[in-house]
Fold each of these.
Amino acid sequence: MQSHPKTSTMNLHRLVAGAAAFGIALSGLHAQKIADTVVKKDGSRERGVEVTAFTLTGIKTKKGAEEREIPPHQVADIEWSDLPETFVSGRTAMARGDFDSARQLFGEAANQATRPVLKTEAKFLQCRAAVASAATSKQAAADAAGATRAWLSESADNWRVPEGMLLLGRALRLAGTGADAETALKELDDRASRDGWSPVWAARAKFELALAQVDQNKGGDARSSFQSASSAADLALGTPSGDDAELKQIKIQGRVGEGETFLAEKDFGRAAEFFRGLANSGQAELVAAGRAGEGEARYQMAVASKNLDEFRAAQIALAHASVLDHTSGEASAKANYYLGMCLLALAGRDDDSSKARANAYFTLVIKAYPTSRWAVAAKAELAKG
Amino acid sequence: MTASRCQSTKSSQIALLFLTVSALSPLSFAQSAKADREIAFVRGLAREFRFLSLAQAEIGRLEQAFKDGSTQDKIQQLGIEVSLMTAKLKSDRNEQRAAYKQALDKTKELLERSSDPAVVGEARGTLADAVQEFGQFLNEELDEARNTAPERVKELEDEAAATFKSGAEACDKVMESLAAEKDPEKKLQHGLAWLRKGVLTREHARAVKGEREFLIPRAITILEDLILEVGEETALGLRGLFEVAQCREVGGDLKDAIDTYQGTVKQISTALKDAQEGRLQMGADTQEFLFNMAQEVAAKLADVLFKQGDVAGGTELFVMMRQFLADNGEQGEKGQKADDLEVCDPRWGHMLFLAECRFLADSGDPAKVTKALEVAQKINDRHPYDFVGVRAKAVLRDILSAQQKLISGKLLFEVGKGEFQNKNYEEAVKGLRKAIAAMSPTEQKEIGLDAWDMLGKSYGLSDRFLEAVIALKEGLARHGGADKTKAEAMADVLDKALSNLKRQTKNDTALSAIYDEATSAVLAWGGSATGDKKLFKDGAQFFQERKFQEAAEAYGKITTEFLQYEVAQVRIGRCHQALGDFTKARQTFADYRAWAAGKAIEDNRKDKQQLRQSAMTEAAFSEAVMGYYEAYGNTELKLQKDLTKYPAAMAALNAYRTNHAKDGDLSLPIILDFLGRLHADQGQMDQADQIYAELKKVDAATASRLATEMFRQHLNIVGNLEKEQTAALAGGDKTAAEAATRALEDARKKLTALGLDYAANSPKPQLGVLVNTMNSFEQLADWKKVDEVAQKALQLYGNETEAKTKEVMDLSVRPKIGEAMLRQKQFTQAHEMLVAAEKANPNQWELKRLIALALGGWFEFDERGAAVRVPGLDKPTEAYQKYWVEYKQWGLRQPDVRKFSIEWYRFHWEAYWFALQAGAKDPKAKENAQTLFRIAKSTDNFASLKKLGAEGNQLARFFDQNKPPVK
């Protein structure tokens, strides 16, 4: 190897040993085997920590000799290191909206996990997936409620208890036990105030409560609860926090929910008028939601009246909602779902691609908005073939 | 770099070689001086100047010019090298995967074929290089799969393991061939192959978790042996040490890895300082190599520190590396500090600074996050296609998802644009809507119109023309005044979207308000409707209506002043092509190219440049299509198939795919379809399969059409193999028969896999394909799949009334569902279903046979070859009655069923089997069995039966295993 230039001073052993004199005073934590990451709501991350315990007041972590507790309202997520394969698969299934598979996979992950915190987390995620998968089956919802209740009882001192209580309320609502749902959600609302939880929990509880009241045909109560949720979100937005994006959504969805109570009461004209009001309110964040709601109302009117021109009016409102929804949230999902429904209704009046285009809208809702409630409805439409 | 280091010397050039592909590719000794000179020139074009398209074209010319075998091998080797370089630059990962695999396959093929030692040496080097690149690709896929699709991990691990093993073996062979060499350059190549073997072994360990425990120590041993051999003080030794550190990291020994990374950077700093101050002699290129390597090591170290969350360690590393760059990199002008991003190595230095961006972004501190975004964006802009760009985009994406509030409308627009360019239209819609809402007034002026334009196009490209019209109209209303030229182009897009909306809605008057508003916007912003514009529109309309003569006339009147003049010229050629006048079409393209060659476009006219590129692409596409028609034939154009034209057609299609596919994405499916057909038609099924897989990802409908052609070819292969098997069995050649049986089974597996894939992806798969797939599954005894395919056929064609289809369904498909149930041993259920079916179709003879089988069972050999009696419902007497009394008139129908034909033997076997089983209790049945056996055995003791292919041989074995009881 004579063609290589030689450095007269280099020495392999010294090279390795030279690290100590390198000048970078490393903390010595880099040999830590468990390297979780806590993702915080302000966008920062704490990497290379070991999550050691959950309590109602925070997530306990360890990094070398340093131990810390991070308050729950600061935490957006935890990225676990060295996960069981089933946990990763569960997370992937959840993200693509395959909640039933996610439920099973998280259940297996809970059995496979060796770290107690990860076991508890997997069980919680199993509940979350179970509730998400229970939208179309009362029995599944009742089972999910049972599982969530069990988790709450064995994990009473866990930072995810507020979400657990919300999930319980939702599961009870989906199971058709509206009164129990109301009780559970009111309890969440009370505890949020009493125990000083983040204000977002009160807003979430009120919103879910309103949905439970819609399901029980209590239109008037539901309208009050939606207004209350919207106000609670608005009030909470007065103090900047990591939950602002969600609070803004609740504020919008609270208003949308109000309009949807008219739809539930089959008062489509009033619903359309309400949503037009939202769209013209001058508040940018309500325009798309208003147009989507108006589109839905006009679609329902068209179905009731069998007036095909009314479907066109619905299409125009929905297309505007799609174009103007800068949040890419429920308004987009709803608009795309109903645009698909309009195409089905207009088959014969449009060219022969209507059915395929309708299916493309449903597929889009499922893929691009998998956690939206419209994804469930879109799946049902696609299943009809 | 300092001036002294910029002067290259021969020895330092050699030292530098070991970072490059060429290091493993010794120049061959010339056999033909001219050919070698030309090959070296083309290699230089590709390697040094990166003129890959030009190099590929030159390779085509060389193939024609030099026909002797040895030179052809050298040219093919060069072709593979250039393909590999092209593969590295591909941004579409599916295409990249296919290109790597193709390079690997072609290299292996060349190695098997060539006897020229020089070519073999180069090919082994290329193989190792291809393995390293493809292995890296697979490791990236594995990383992704471990986080998002664990079910794919096993398959990817297996593929990676096989790939890395073949690379390590290639390195062994290179080392073996160079072991005795004394020449320093050859010794260096020997060392490089050794180093690469260690690296490939480590990467194998990275890919396959379960094998790390023994692969990591093996990789470390290989590398440490190398270091001892070449000397720890040499550049190669230092590199080896760095690779050892990476082994430790992969093995999870992070403490040691960090120590070694740190030690390496420190030693490089010291060595460079000593060289600068004259204490150490070192060539300029070696210094440059070490300067870059220090950054590579630092980038690795930064990644490890980042994963460990060691912010303090990371911060100190970046401070130190900035100082390192200041001490060792080029100085700024007039004593000013130079920009670190300019001074550092564009690969590893930029990777290092991206790692710093991640540290900054993790802090959550707005000022630091903004700084991170700025740097990541700069790096991203400088790396549009390579792996640094991929990493930069990932960093940007992570920051964007976590730090919504800090993102400018402009940056969000860039993200949306990225999604649009990647054809993720709904993601583009989401990103662009967000960008529009986040834009400041200045940003709105600057890019508002572009954002709305792209939003409208995203809707249009996903067939949502109502939304497209609304978005484009809205964009023009808000920002049309900001740029009249852009607004005019956008009005054109709106005009097209409106036409499409009207087509979709059949001009529904309920949408008049929307139509009118859009038309007003087109008139307001579309500029004056000049004659050229109208002619262009008319031409397009005629072309769409297949009025090609009129279209050519309209395009021909367009003046050179018109922006789309060049596109119009190419369209004239396309009209001639469509009319079947290929000579005129080619002449038109040649005239256009000659005109364009003399008409340079100003640098600032990006629009014209893009249109020229688009015109050139369209011309090349048309030429490739004509070549295809001339080879494969075209009924409409009355062209016959001409096998002699296949090579030229395939070369043209491949050249289009390499040179233009990125520009003409919409035509890629057609090109792939044509290529796939040509491969399939020549029986090159592996290549056809690969193209089919690629096509499926870009256009499922076209892929489905190609699948039917491929299926036909696979079916031919199966048919031919059946004949081979029959001949081998008849000839009594056991070895040949076994080989033919294995080949036939493999072919059937391929056929069924393709059939299933086609059935799953085609909106309405052809009945013929379904039936043949079903029958092949039957031959493979996979009855579950037989049932699945038959059910699918029933679902699609069960209600068809057309006579031929109905006959196929009644005679082939429906009975197969019952038989599948039977063969899966669901006897009661099958019997009930068959009896009900027979009631409805009393003349369905096959149903009667199946009922008999359900009642009396059958005989078979299991997977291990053991004889098995399947009892069915264990009612052999009833089975015999059904079979002999009712089925016989069909089973031995005359004149269709000839004596001693396979059908005749099958009938006698089944009747005999039922009689034999019934004979255990019934003497009369026993006698019947004896009679039937005697008839079947006559007159040549089953010799005729054994000549009837695989089924004949199987029936002969059945009779042999089940001789009748002695009277």
Note: Chain B touches chain A through 99 residues (CB under 8 Å).
Amino acid sequence: MAQFLQYAFSGLTVGAVYALVALGFTLIYNASGVINFAQGEFVMLGGMVTVFATAAGVPLPLAALLAIAVAVLVGVALHLLAIEPAKGASAVTLIIITIGASILLRGLASIVFDKRFHALPAFIPGEAWRVGGASILPQSVLVLGGAAAVVVLLWVFMSRTLLGKAMIATAANRMAARLVGINTVWIICASFAVSAAIGAIGGILVTPITLTNYDVGTLLALKGFSAAMLGGMGNPLGAIVGGLVVGLLEAFGAGYISSAYKDAIAFLVILLVLFVMPNGLFGRAGVERV
Amino acid sequence: MTMQTLLRRHGVVLGLLALVLVLPLVLPSNFYFRIATLTFIFALAVLGLNLVMGYAGQVSLGHGGFFGIGAYAVAVGPTHFGIPVWAALPLGALLAGLLAFLIGRPILKLKGHYLAVATLGMGILIAMVFTNEAQYTGGPDGMSVPRLVLFGWSARGPITWYWISGISLVVAAWLAMNLIDSPTGRAFRAIHDSEPASGVLGVNVARYKLIAFVLSAVFAAVAGAYLALYDGGVTPRTAEFLRSIEFVTMAVLGGLGSVIGSVVGAAFLTILPQVLTVFHDYEHVVLGLLIILFMMFLRDGIVPTLARLIFRRRS
């Protein structure tokens, strides 16, 4: 039981980060129809900027804010400079553009920062807490709490503010949204910004546990994308559940079956789920117009 | 058959053949032969992928896995099972085709991004086997590959492999062009344009998607075997998912649905990193930037977009 709890804690911690990445995918996909493979780089930027800002003597909260700001700027720039000018190109062309952006950002990060691994001190110092025979780091609780806070804030933002509602309207039907006077270019830009901020927050929170370097984004994008698809593309709840499930599968797979095959177990389950539910756990079946 | 289709079909293949024949006259050193050989090998894999993506309209992010099966077949077969190299190569291709056939049925029911993630998972599972089954594959360090020996003649060095891969590419292009102009090829394109519509018209959608998928897996496996034999070794990096992403990028950059596009896309991403080494640390920055710019300005891929521009000017 203690062992089970232990795996569950580590699975949920990693899963929370996957969930944030998946949520970022979902936001951009809903607003613009683009699968943004540079999503993982936002997480990397969150961690790396915070590490280097704190090393330069900036207090942690300020460094974290700075990191989020940098990620948001990069997200907005990605949209305005690369995605928006290619408006009307096919989905696969846009995906390759985001892959190019991901290579570019990784390259820049390796120059501006370096290629080494970096850690941050835990935000809440102290010993691991004991829960039911298992131990959990305060930082893990912070990751989970932070992810939950992001989700709640996002929900409030989407359902209570005009900007959020405009984002939902744009996701539902871009043409109709434009007809009622919503500046959809601006809204898509905002969704890149929000998505970048969410990724960066994930990166900042998890860096004390998992370390970071210029290259962490690739794997995170891969896992986040898979999680979003597992949940059902375009469904925010699906993204969160998908992320947590992928994290838990990895942890339990590594613990009970084989640590060498932990990624394999997660992907095997994703494949099986998709065979039974071709639109993911929460996705709706689309109807193709002929 | 009109003169025009004849010219189009054979023009591409003949042009490619001419390129393969003439290039050695201008390539100054073994280094350039190596780059050309790598381009041909990757173009072979991308050509297969293009059948799936460009003609049948199905995304695959898992072709690095098939590439790896071909590569490891010529490594593991001779080393552990005593299979001669010349037999291990087609055996690997057969194995990749068989796997594609078995996995393809359930996977190809998925659409769009769901198919992408399923093929991605498949590729990662395959790569993981190569990394973890160290008693056969040498684990993360990989293993060496014996030379291909045919009738007492050992195939080694960039110039030999230039000819093997170049001629193979021409043959593959000829096969692909024939396929595209056959009823099967027309069925591929119908599926690309609209799956429900082609289903209604009596095209067996599942069957043709599977054909394209299996063929592309075989192409990728042969290419993988060539790379392993040429390099004299394999590591799990041969099959990693970045390889799959690279193939897709090559196919899209060169132009989906274009045989020449496959070669141009493969050349672009093989030659460019060599050229960009002059930028040292900035290599990846420039590479990423160029991919973005090319896709922004040549949206349908390099070859189709340029072809359209030239055609428009003429008429």
Note: The first strand of chain A starts at residue 129 and ends at 131.
